[in-house]
Amino acid sequence: MIEFRSVARCFVQGRGRSARRVQAVDGLSWVAADGCISGLLGPNGAGKTTLLRMAAALLEPDAGQVRVDGLDVATQREAALARVGVLGDARGLYPRLTARENIVYHARLQGLSEEAAQARTDSVARMLQMQPLLERRTEGFSQGERMKTALARALVHDPHNIVLDEPTNGLDVPATRALRDTLRMLRDEHGKCIVFSTHLMQEVERLCDQVLVMARGRAVAQGTVGELCAQSGETDFERCFVRLAFGEAAA
Amino acid sequence: MSPAKPPPPKARRRGGAVFIVLRKELLDALRDRRTLLTLLLSSVAVGPLVLWLLSTMVAGIEERAERREVMVAGIEHAPSLRNYLQRQTYVVRAAPADYEAQLRSRRLGDPVLVVEPAFEADLLRGEPPLVQLVFSSANTRAAAGASRLAALMQGFNQEQALLRLAWRGVAPSALQAVQVDERDLASPAARAAQWTMLLPFFVLMAVLYGALHAALDATAGERERGSLEPLLMNPVPTWAIVLGKWAAVSAVAMLIALLSCASFLPGQWLLRSESLAALFRFGLREGALFLALLLPLAGALSALLMALAIRSRSVKEAQAGAAALALLVSLLPMLSLFGQEGEARWHLAVPALAQITLMGRVLKAEAMSPLELALPLGVCVLMCVACLGYVAHRLRRAALA
C-alpha cells in the first residue's frame, strides 16, 4: 500500500530574476491499495512523475508524507525502498553487462545473496518471457528488450509495491499485451499493490481498478473508470478524462 | 513463476553494498577491453620509451665528446693551432661552407672555430688574433660541445703565454696568482637526475589518464545512460555507492601507477648510454617509494575527477573539465622549472606538484623527512574526503536533472 498524505513539492526553474516557482504537486492525498492496479492519469506536466519519484525516495516532499506499507519514506528510506520496485522515467542499462548481470546487480543491492539473486533473476525472466535475452549484453537491445530488462530489474527483489512510470512507452502491441497480463497476474496471484502512470486511456480502461486523475499537481477526481464516467456524465472515457482534467470548456 | 515469497531478508551489512558496487564497476571497466588495453599498454610503454629517448640523446653527446674532433674553418691560416690540436690528439676537420645555416637548422652537431687569415702573422707579432667560437644555444648538441672547445682554446692560450714568459725568463707560476680547483657537488645520482627529471612527470600523467576514463564513466556516463536514477532507488546509502565507485576508479588508476613504475625496472636495460645506465638507479627501493607517493595521489585524483564529472550531463561535457585538469597538472612541473627560488616549501602542499618534487628527490637519492612524506599524503586524504563528500551530496540531484 502506498499512501500520499497531502504531499506538496515545488521546483524553482531558472536562476536569479528569471527564476520561476513551479508547484509540481500541490497538497495531494491518495491511497494506492493492495491487490489493486491503480492508474495515475493526467496530461503532460500534471505532476505524475514527481509524485512517483517521491514514492521512490528520489525527491523529498516539501510538505506532507509518503508512506509505503506504513513506513515513512523520508525517515525510513531504506526499509521503504526495499518494499518498492520502481520502473522510473530513466531506464538506462549497463551496455557492457549482460541482461542477467544488470538484473543481479540490483538484486544484490537490494540485499539478496548471490544465489538468491541468480534464482530470482531466473524466475523473473521466466515470468517476463525473456530467458533468451539473459546472457546477451544489453548493448543493441531493442526498446522492448530494454524495457523488459528494466522491469525485471525493478521486480527482482519481489517487492510488494510496484511503481511504473509510463511502462508501455515504446512497446509494440504484443509486448504491451504481455505486460498487461503480467501486471494482472501479479495483482491476482500475489496481491501486489501496483501503481502506474500513463496518458493512454485504453490502458487505463483495460487494466485499472482505481484511477486518479491529476491536473496541475492536484487530484481532480478518483474512482473506478465507471465511477469517473458517471461523475462527469460521459459514456466515453476519453471525453470523461478531458472534461475532468481540462475542465468543462475543453470538453 | 515462483509462488509469493516473504520479502527477502534485509540483514546485509552496509559495507557489503560498497563491495557490490566496486565489483560491478570493475567488471564494467574490464569489459571495456579496448580502452583498458590502450591505457595499460601506454602506461607500460611510457617508462622504457622515455628512458630510451633520453639515453639516445645522452649517448649522442657522449659519443661526440669521445670522438675528439674539432671543426675549424680556415685552419690553413693557423699551422701553430693545428699543431697544438693534433698534439692534444684531436682530429681537425674543415667546417662545411654553410656551417652557420647548418648550426641554425641543427643539422650540424658540433661547434665551429673560425680562424682569420691573419692568424699566424698576428701571433708572431704578439698581437692577439681573433678566433670565433660559433655555436647556437638553441642547438643542444652543438652547445654541449662549445664549452669543451672553449677549454681547448684556453689551453692553447696558456701554452703560448707560458712560452713567451719562459723566453723572457719569468717563472710560469707568476701567471697563476690563484690556483682554481673544480669540485662538483652533485652526486652521481643527482647528475643523472638532470636527465631523468622528466620521468616523474610522465608517470603522473599516466596515472591521471588512467583514472580519467573510469571516473567519467562511473559518474557522467551513468547519468548519460539514465542508469543513475534506478541505481539510487535501491535501499543503499548514497555514500556506499559513491565509495564503491571511487574504489573501482582508484583501483584502475593504482594499477596504472604500479605498471608504469614497474616498467622502469626492465626499462633500464634499454639505456644506450653507459654512464647514464651507471647513474640512473631505479631499483626496488625507488620503485616502492614512487608507489608510496603515487597511490594516495591516484586515489585523490580519482575523487577529484569524479567530483568534476558529476556536474556534467554527458561524458563529452565532462571531458572538457577533465582536459582542463590534465592541462593544469601538466603545467605544475613548470613551476619548479621556471621558479627562481627553486623548490619552495609550499610545493609539497600542492597535490601532483608535491609528488613530482618528491619523486625527483627519490631519483636524486636525496633524503626526505617523515614530515615531507606525510604532508602530501595528508593533502591527498583531505582532497579525497572533500571530493567524495561533494559527489555524494550531488548524486541524487544529478540523477534527476
Which labels suit this protein?
heterodimer; A: 251 residues; alpha/beta; B: 401 residues; mainly alpha; abc type-2 transporter like fold; four-stranded mixed beta sheet; 68% helix; elongated
| Counted beta strands of chain B | 4
Span from first to last CA of chain A? 34 Å
Low-confidence stretches of chain A: none
Based on Cα principal axes, name the global outline of chain A.
globular
Number of helices of chain B: 16
Topology order of chain A in helix (H) and strand (E) letters: EEEHEEHEHHHEHEHEEHH
Helical content of chain A stands at 25-40%
Strand order of the largest sheet of chain B: 2-1-3-4
* Helical run tally of chain A: 9
Distance between the termini of chain B: 37 Å
Which class do the helix and strand fractions of chain A yield? alpha/beta
- What is the string of SSEs of chain B from the N terminus onward? HHEHEHEHEHHHHHHHHHHH
- Roughly how many Å is the radius of gyration of chain A? 19 Å
Identify the biggest protein-protein contact and residues per side: A-B, 48 and 35 residues
- Helix proportion range of chain B: 55-70%
Outline the structure in words.
The complex is a heterodimer of chains A (251) and B (401). With 251 residues, chain A is of the alpha/beta class. Helices cover 37% and strands 26% of the residues of chain A. Chain A has helices at 48-55, 77-81, 99-109, 114-127, 143-155, 173-190, 201-207, 225-232, 237-246; strands spanning 2-13, 20-32, 36-41, 63-68, 71-72, 84-87, 161-165, 193-198, 210-215, 218-223. Chain A has a six-stranded mixed beta sheet, with helices on both faces. A four-stranded antiparallel beta sheet of chain A has the order 2-1-4-5. In chain A, helix 3 crosses helix 4 (114-127) and helix 3 (99-109) runs parallel beside helix 5. Chain B is mostly helical and 401 residues long. Helix content of chain B is 68%, strand content 4%. Chain B has a four-stranded mixed beta sheet with strand order 2-1-3-4. In chain B, helix 3 links the parallel strand 1 and strand 2. Chain B is elongated and about 100 Å long. Residues 1-11 of chain B have low confidence and may be disordered. The chains are: A alpha/beta (251), B mainly alpha (401). The A-B interface holds A 53, 56-59, 77-84, 86, 88-97, 101, 105-106, 108-112, 116, 120, 123, 126-127, 150, 153-154, 157-160, 185, 189-191 and B 1-2, 4-5, 7-12, 17, 20-21, 24, 27-28, 31-32, 222, 225-237, 396, 399-400.
